[in-house]
Design goal:
Chain A: Residues 1-102 form the AP complex mu/sigma subunit domain. The complex is a heterodimer of chains A (205) and B (716). Chain A is of the alpha+beta class. Chain A is 42% helix and 20% strand. In chain A, the strands form 3 sheets. A 5-stranded antiparallel sheet of chain A has the order 2-1-5-4-3, sandwiched between helices. A two-stranded antiparallel sheet of chain A has the order 6-7. Chain A has a two-stranded antiparallel sheet with strand order 8-9. The longest helix of chain A is centred in the middle third of the chain and has 18 residues, at 83-100. By secondary structure, chain B is of the alpha+beta class. Chain B has 33 helices and 10 strands. In chain B, helix 10 (151-167) packs parallel to helix 12 (188-204) and helix 21 packs antiparallel against helix 22 (359-372). The chains are: A alpha+beta (205), B alpha+beta (716).
Chain lengths: 205, 716
């Protein structure tokens, strides 16, 4: 079971927090701080698994994380999850989030500020990222890992929301881009920090 | 700022705040505006407001006033409002809050909504935070959705069912038939959900295992399909077809094949196929391969297959990728008990991983190394473990020292080796040795009588260069007190001779007493050692006397008490001093030296954690004695549930009177007394073991004290 998904930046500022087990608010913030403290101490060439967090659940829990330039994606899991599987899942989730916000990705690919834009997506559209993640992980369990399926479902849900009358104040740029969105035109190469992936098939990892 | 500004605008304003205080101010204003908006019956930007609230909640600000708004939004007919309402419920509510009951009806209605996206919101929320009552209420609906809907809903209903089974295991019966039939679905999401559900059903209730073992052929077919299928862009991850599903199926096969020959047979070929054909150059393939290896090791597989599996793990131990090395050690840890010899073959590589840069890899290597220590390899393993101790990361040190002590105790090839190992650990990592191990170490040292001289010399030399490591200080002080005469003699077979004068020894003990680095326990050890030396030295009795009397007015209450009693030994009971301070002083079960009882009117027999227990004997006849224990408490808070139990030799009769109470007031403001009548008709040598139990500052404490001599001369 996945106990929590935490996304924060290099300074420990939370960008998305999702707990799948109840914790009081101050406990949640303490967990975020402790996790950031543990994860930020790690070099870039060590393994992606961490034990020893005491707050979130004792000896059966591990932190599995990936660091992309300015963001840490941390999944806190128990022993029923495959560690390498979760590592792949984080990668898949990041790609999905980027593809769903793909307009920015497409426009900014050649721009040096690319990585910051990725973080800005999270900052300004926290609710959207939650909805996307809900299609991947539900109730602390992995729900779906087929990228195309997830992206298509997210798009349909967004359309449903828009059709009710434009309540979700997306930036104008994104709104027009969504109208123009056409899956086959997604760029074949996406650079996220130091990894290079092709869309939609995910190689090399 | 206009009240109905959108989420992005608010975020912009928050981010432009230059200080934490400014940010707080902005957020407080926003929250006030949001709160006002919530109170209005109808406002246009309702979903904006809740989204803003969830944003500030993420930053750590209170958002409980939004709970009812979530309930209202969930009941709205608009999808956009339902969506944020359900998200808010999952973030702000949990089943313990009353507000969560109010959404049960909405969830129920939305589960049968015509739009699958609204159904999916309800399913997601139920799976996240459904209470037991909600689950019971809605289980039949979920069961219906498992059978009669599209794949999108089916996969979500399956995970919802998992949550329900976790909350109310008996409801598992309801889902068992549908779970089985879901295995024939073609959609991978549904298959994944089905496998997770079946896994949960089997783990909750082993009675289900027989039923689901019938599904083994189907599961094997599914795996074969994934492994042998051609390139499928839909599910492909780095050349592996849906590795996530493969891993899930392999785990389920493990559960079904465990302890069952028939099921294990049925999956044997498949496992061999996956083990040999999976390309593990990338993470996805490695994940599948590991799962396969673990399954092979856990079921009743053929020996050839087991050998293959352990070899695969061994190969991965040598992989350059640290993730893979880490995972292979995790896997080896799981099988080290059952396949010990196989894992031993890789001991060299595992020990090398102790030197890895990565703290996570080091941790795994430490665990495994400790598990691999045996009588045959103890000498070489201990060399490696001691070498590791000097570069060990701080978070692993106390675990490492405990593990080393355990291994040494189990497999020590000789006493000398054992003592050397203990000394080495105390000297290199004495600061990380757990307090509870000190009495045990002292016990081991005292038993190795031929090595007392060697031990006390080594400890003394370590002490004069470093008094900061508390465990080292405590053990060293005890040894110096106990074997001070051997230390002062100067020569010792096994070490270079070194002249140690009485002044030198008293210098170092006094330094410990005065040092701000010394813990109260260490000070206690040092003072007791000084006192014991009064019987072992000749020239410095006055110095000792003056130290003891100085500490009679020490601020530390426990130290003061101890010093006062020692002072009494010098003054009133000098004739007893040799008897008490001789080599038969008894150790309590904690790190405080327990004195023999002697004929002072009121003697402290136990002192730890602010609790002081005194003993008084009176009303002595030839065979009867009344013993009164008085307990006091010098901590800041009251001690509760204080009880004493006593045990005496069989021939002695014991009658416990009612204690005066069970609460010891803080800061010495009151005491608890317990009287015990002893009748010793056979005049047997009287000993008593007393067990204390109490609660201090919320923690339950238990301890034991052994009292080995009572004052009546007729019985000693």
């Amino acid at each position: 079971m996945i106990k929590a998904i935490l996304i924060f930046n290099n300074h420990g500022k939370p960008r998305l927090i999702r707990f799948y087990q109840y914790f009081a608010e101050d406990m949640q913030q303490q967990i975020i701080r402790e996790t950031f403290h543990l994860v930020s101490k790690r070099d870039d060439n060590v393994c992606n698994f961490l034990e020893g967090g005491s707050l979130i659940g004792g000896s059966d829990y591990k932190l599995i994380y990936r660091h992309y330039a300015t963001l840490y994606f941390v999944f806190c899991v128990d022993s029923s999850e495959s560690e390498l599987g979760i590592l792949d899942l984080i990668q898949v989730s990041v790609i999905i989030v980027n593809v769903c916000f793909h307009v920015q990705v497409f426009v900014e690919t050649l721009d040096k500020c690319f990585e910051n834009v990725c973080e800005l997506d999270l900052i300004f559209h926290m609710d959207k990222v939650h909805y996307i993640l809900q299609e991947v992980v539900m109730g602390g369990m992995v729900l779906e890992t087929n990228m195309n399926e997830i992206v298509a479902q997210v798009e349909l849900q967004n359309r449903m929301e828009k059709s009710e009358g434009g309540l979700s104040a997306a930036p104008a740029r994104a709104v027009s881009a969504v109208k123009n969105m056409n899956l086959p035109e997604i760029p074949r190469n996406i650079n996220i920090g130091d990894i290079n992936i092709k869309v939609p098939s995910l190689s090399p990892f | 700022m206009a009240p109905s500004v959108c989420l992005q605008e608010m975020i912009r304003v928050i981010r432009s705040a230059r200080t934490q205080g400014e940010e707080r101010g902005v957020i407080q204003r926003e929250c006030a505006a949001i709160r006002a908006q919530f109170r209005q019956a109808d406002s246009g930007g309702r979903s904006h407001n809740l989204a803003k609230l969830l944003y500030v909640h993420m930053l750590g600000y209170p958002a409980h006033f939004g709970q009812m708004e979530c309930v209202r939004m969930i009941a709205s007919p608009r999808y956009s409002e339902k969506r944020i309402g359900y998200l808010g419920a999952m973030m702000l509510l949990d089943e313990k809050q009353d507000a969560s009951l109010l959404i049960t009806n909405s969830i129920k209605n939305d589960l049968s909504h015509s739009s699958q996206y609204i159904q999916s919101l309800a399913l997601c929320t139920l799976a996240c935070m459904g209470s037991a009552e909600m689950c019971r209420d809605l289980a039949p609906e979920i069961e219906r959705l498992l059978k009669a809907s599209n794949s999108y809903i089916k996969k979500k209903a399956a995970l919802c069912a998992v949550h329900i089974v976790r909350k109310i295991p008996e409801l598992g019966e309801l889902f068992t038939p549908s779970a089985h039939s879901l295995l024939s679905d073609k959609n991978h999401g549904v298959l994944h959900g089905a496998v997770v559900l079946i896994t949960e059903l089997c783990e909750r209730n082993p009675g289900n295992l027989d039923e689901f073992r019938k599904a083994v052929p189907e599961l094997v077919q599914i795996m074969k399909g994934l492994v042998t299928s051609g390139y499928s862009p839909e599910h492909n991850v780095a050349g592996i077809s849906d590795p996530f599903l493969q891993v899930r199926v392999l785990r389920l096969l493990r559960i079904l094949g465990r302890n069952n020959d028939e099921a294990s047979d049925a999956m044997n070929d498949l496992l061999a196929q996956v083990a040999t054909n999976t390309d593990s150059s990338k993470t996805a393939g490695s994940a599948v391969l590991y799962e396969t290896v673990l399954t092979i090791m856990d079921i009743k597989s053929e020996s050839g297959l087991r050998v293959l599996a352990v070899n695969i793990l061994g190969r991965f131990l040598l992989n350059n990728d640290r993730n893979i090395r880490y995972i292979s050690m995790t896997s080896l840890q799981k099988i080290v008990q059952t396949d010990h010899t196989a894992v031993q073959r890789h001991r060299g590589t595992i020990v090398d991983c102790l030197k890895d840069q990565d703290a996570s890899v080091k941790r795994r290597a430490l665990e495994l190394s400790l598990a691999l220590v045996s009588a045959a390899n103890i000498r070489s393993m201990m060399k490696e473990l001691l070498r590791f101790l000097s570069t060990c990361p701080p978070e692993l040190r106390s675990h490492a020292t405990s593990g080393i002590f355990n291994a040494a105790e189990r497999y020590a090839p000789s006493q000398r080796w054992h003592i050397d190992t203990i000394l080495h650990v105390l000297i290199t990592a004495g600061g990380d040795v757990r307090d509870e191990t000190v009495p045990n170490l002292i016990q081991l040292i005292s038993v190795a009588s031929e090595l007392h001289c060697y031990t006390v010399h080594k400890l003394y030399r370590a002490l004069i260069s470093d008094i900061s490591q508390q465990s080292l200080v405590q053990v060293a002080c005890w040894c110096i007190g106990e074997y001070g005469d051997l230390l002062l003699k100067g020569d010792c077979d096994e070490i270079e001779p070194m002249q140690v004068t009485e002044d030198d020894v008293l210098d170092v003990l006094e330094t410990i007493l005065q040092s701000h680095m010394s813990s109260p326990t260490s000070r206690g050890f040092a003072l007791t050692a000084i006192m014991k030396l009064s019987t072992r030295i000749t020239n410095n009795i006055d110095r000792i006397r003056s130290v003891v009397s100085i500490y009679g007015s020490c601020i530390d209450v426990e130290l003061q008490q101890r010093a006062v009693e020692y002072n009494a030994l010098f003054k009133k009971y000098d004739h007893m001093r040799y008897l008490i301070m001789s080599s038969h002083t008894i150790m309590g079960f904690n790190s405080v030296t327990c004195l023999c009882v002697f004929s002072a009117p009121n003697v402290t027999v136990y002192e730890k954690g602010g609790v002081n227990l005194k003993l008084q004997c009176d009303n002595q006849t030839e065979t009867a004695i009344t013993v009164t224990f008085t307990a006091s408490n010098s901590t800041q808070s009251d001690i509760t549930s204080f009880t004493l139990q006593a045990a005496v030799p069989k021939s002695v009769q014991l009658q416990m009177k009612a204690p005066s109470g069970d609460v010891i007031p803080a800061q010495g403001r009151g005491t608890v007394t317990q009287t015990i009548l002893l009748n010793n008709p056979n005049k047997a040598s009287l000993k008593m073991r007393v067990r204390l139990s109490y609660t201090s500052q919320g923690t339950l404490c238990q301890d034991m004290v052994q009292i080995d001599s009572f004052p009546s001369p007729a019985w000693n």
